[in-house]
Write a structure and sequence with these properties.
The complex is a heterodimer of chains A (280) and B (190).
Chain A: E1 2-5, H1 6-22, H2 26-38, H3 42-61, E2 73-79, E3 82-85, H4 88-102, E4 127-133, E5 138-142, H5 147-150, E6 154-158, H6 163-178, E7 186-193, H7 196-206, H8 218-232, E8 247-255, E9 262-269, E10 276-279
Parallel strand pairs in A: 1-3, 2-4, 7-8
Antiparallel strand pairs in A: 2-5, 5-10, 6-9, 7-9
Helix pairs in contact in A: 1-4, 2-3, 6-8
Chain B: E1 4-7, H1 12-17, E2 23-32, H2 35-46, E3 59-61, H3 89-94, E4 99-102, H4 108-117, E5 120-123, H5 129-134, E6 136-143, E7 152-166, H6 173-189
């Protein structure tokens, strides 16, 4: 049994929030710069150049990459040999409170969604996903999510007969209909199979997979490439004004599912697909 | 790039000269407003009460900025998605609003009001928030301070980079831009 005080988790979470909010991943920045070389119109190149310059400013000045610093989403993998000393959820929410206040990040959470919509003022509560895994370590992934792209996400419960073609059409349609709204170039996270909520969670997890990586299953990897090419033929382009770079990546994963179903969830993410991770 | 420099306030006459696809640099004073502030403005109009701001010849930027860190006028301040303001915008355009800055599609009612009264929809680049913040030189809260980031602010902007997305004749870069790209790649495939 390894003991980890909840204060250690809090401190790690604070660091991850800063890192993700100020520093875009090198995979995304490289993909944006590669896009500049691909665009034919000066306006589309101009958009990508603004994005790349903005990333540099955010990093150099430690300011938010995007003003929508999102809901604070965490994925925890906790080794079952770990004993956390102190309140776990409180530590995570304390981290959010501290980092969003001291890091000049926007507080974008309302306590109740329909009647009052009053801002909680400190960006809590965090959204915490957790899995118990073998071992004595804790892995933390922080992936804040803005709602420009979250609002363009979709899930559909397909019958098995819809097959690969049904899934492909749904993913392409979702990106096409979102058009300029989710801040393209986008990262498209796709979850296939599982239950309703598992498909959505898988799609969310896929928005944080590095650009350029592929699913280990060659059939899914090929589908990722095929869908990326098809989406980039839509012509939506940077900021939706037309061009070659509509998506930087299509990341797909699957889960075992029911004999009667084939859920497909598409979690759209803007190019600011912020994430940071660490292992304790 | 060949940017057109525009000084604000934006008269209807100037708004009518702008064409979808033009890149512009805006300088002058603008208001901010998003969901919650718009809701309050329209509520006042519904009650027959005056607005706390005069929107005539004004531009509203759909933004909820991040808090300013020391030494900055404002925190990161990229555009939010505009369709959420679609149910409110036509009323403000009717009252003289000549420009909106945001990102994403607008509905037909907004476009019809823009054509009828002479207004323009500018796009700022979503996710270029740190760069845009540098072009905002001053920020002050005008009203609805309780809304925090969603309060109506007045920004002094200098060479704020934007693209005309939809013009006062209904020209729409979100339609023509992607269509032009698709036509080009289809031509090449043949």
């Amino acid at each position: 049994m390894r003991e980890i005080p909840s204060s250690v988790i809090r401190e790690a979470a604070v660091r991850l929030i800063y890192e993700a909010s100020y520093r875009i991943g090198p995979d995304i920045e490289a993909a944006i710069r590669a896009g500049i070389g691909r665009e034919r119109s000066a306006a589309a190149r101009g958009v990508l150049e603004q994005i790349a310059e903005s990333y540099e400013i955010a990093r150099a000045e430690s300011v938010a990459i995007c003003q929508d610093t999102g809901m604070a989403v965490f994925f925890f993998e906790i080794g079952q040999e770990v004993h956390i000393i102190g309140p776990f959820e409180e530590a995570v929410n304390d981290a959010v409170r501290e980092a969003y206040r001291d890091g000049y990040l926007r507080k974008s959470v309302v306590a109740e969604p329909m009647f009052e919509r009053v801002n909680t003022g400190d960006n809590t509560p965090a959204v915490i996903h957790m899995r118990l895994v073998p071992g004595d370590r804790i892995h933390i992934l922080f992936t804040p999510k803005g709602f420009g792209s979250e609002n363009m996400s979709r899930i559909r419960m397909f019958p098995p007969a819809a097959g690969v073609e049904g899934m492909k059409r749904f993913v392409i349609e979702t990106v096409a209909e979102a058009g300029p709204n989710p801040c393209p170039p986008v990262i498209v996270g796709v979850g296939v199979g599982g239950t309703f909520e598992q498909a959505a969670l898988t799609a969310k997890r896929m928005t944080a997979r590095p650009v350029g990586s592929h699913n280990a299953d060659p059939r899914y990897a090929a589908l990722e490439d095929e869908l990326l090419a098809a989406i980039n033929r839509l012509g939506v382009g940077p900021a939706g004004i037309g061009g070659a770079t509509t998506a930087l990546a299509v990341n797909i994963d699957y889960r075992p599912t029911h004999i009667a179903g084939m859920p497909v969830a598409v979690n759209m993410c803007c190019h600011c697909a912020r994430h940071a991770e660490t292992t304790l | 790039m060949n940017e057109k420099r525009i000084r604000l306030p934006l008269t209807r006459e100037t708004a009518r000269t702008l064409r979808a696809g033009e890149t512009v640099l805006l300088t002058g004073s603008i208001y901010t407003g998003r969901d919650a502030a718009h809701k309050r403005l329209i509520q006042l109009l519904d009650e027959g009460k005056p607005l706390p701001i005069d929107v005539k010849d004004q531009v509203i930027y759909y933004v909820g900025p991040a808090p300013a860190s020391p030494g900055h006028a404002v925190g990161s301040a990229g555009p939010t998605t505009s369709y959420r303001m679609d149910s409110y915008a036509p009323r403000l355009i009717e009252l003289g609003l000549t420009g909106m800055i945001g990102k994403g599609k607008r509905n037909q009612a907004v476009i019809d009001a823009m054509k009828r009264y002479g207004a323009v929809y500018f796009g700022a680049v979503g996710g270029a928030a740190a760069l845009i913040a540098r072009r905002i030189k001053k920020s002050e809260v005008v009203c609805y301070e309780d809304l925090g980031s969603e309060a109506i602010h007045r920004f002094e902007i200098e060479d704020f980079p934007a693209i005309v997305l939809i013009d006062s004749e209904g020209g729409n870069l979100y339609e023509t831009g992607p269509a032009a790209y698709r036509a080009e790649i289809e031509d090449e495939a043949q």
